[in-house]
Amino acid sequence: MFACGRVVFLVVVTFLRTVQASTDAVPCVAMETCLLPCRFSPGGDLVVHWIQEKTKHNVHSFYHDRNQLGAQDPSFRGRTALFQDQIAGGNASLRLTGVTIQDQGLYKCYTGTNERTMEVFILLQVNAPVRRVDIQQAEDSITCSSEGIYPLPGLTWSTRPPSNRSLWSPTVQQTAQQLFSISSSVPNPAADLDYICTVSGGGTNRTATWARPTSINGSESGTTIPCASLPAPHTSLTWRFNHSHTILKQNGSSYKVS
């Protein structure tokens, strides 16, 4: 008599639910620090991967309770950090320093636990505002210029009092860092007009004014030279002698006298 036995194998399959969040746009300023937000539902065996979508480069990884930067792309080396004390609570936001124009684009924050996985997409938008506008006279022309701007800037001229003089087209150049510089010159400026140059770009506008020459009478005890300026706030003020020698410069609350 033979006895038959039956062995039963029980296979348990666990399916992790993947949750995708909508894409959020985050504006950042070039060469400054930017925060890319990423929230997730806390759980055990946490894995975090930040990926730059257009290149598939690894931006930052975290698992086994510590940062894992062996696969990090060299362009992000030394520029990324997570908030270590907040990860366990569901915050995988990325701190990116020294933001460049090349950094802009779509990023994916992947988080995985023993309960679920999540994908959050962030669209990083980078701009470089107009920080200053320089205007100066050289021989028989007035030149207005600005640099380090993104995206493509614009430059316009106006006069005070208004005139029907022709507009002067600007020249634009782009650096290897994809930042723009812009300049324009007014040939043979009229002696009875003030020339106002406005540069716009990166969500900002800055203005510089070339005032017509004014004759004053001085004395041994001194004299006051008037200077009518545009309404505040001012970013800088420069006094020059004979168009070239700088005698006073103001940047914010700081003064430098030559």
How would you explain this protein's 3D organization?
With 258 residues, this protein is mostly beta strands. It has two domains: 17-127, Immunoglobulin-like (Sandwich); 134-212, Immunoglobulins (Immunoglobulin-like, Sandwich). It is 0% helix and 46% strand. The chain contains no helices and 20 strands. The chain has strands at residues 17-20, 24-29, 34-36, 47-52, 57-63, 66-67, 80-82, 94-96, 105-112, 116-127, 134-138, 141-149, 154-160, 171-174, 180-187, 194-201, 204-210, 236-241, 245-251, 254-257. Strands 1, 2, 4, 5, 6, 9 and 10 form a seven-stranded mixed β-sheet that branches. Strands 11-12-15-14 form a four-stranded antiparallel β-sheet, with no helix packed on it. Strands 3-8-7 form a three-stranded antiparallel β-sheet, with no helix packed on it. A hairpin with a 5-residue loop joins β14 (171-174) and β15. The protein is elongated and about 85 Å long.
Whole-number total of structural domains: 2
Distance between the termini: 115 Å
What helical percentage do the residues reach? under 10%
Poorly predicted runs: 1-16
Secondary structure tally, helices: 0
CATH fold-level name of the largest domain: Immunoglobulin-like
- The percentage of residues in β strands lies in over 45%
| CATH architectural type of the largest domain | Sandwich
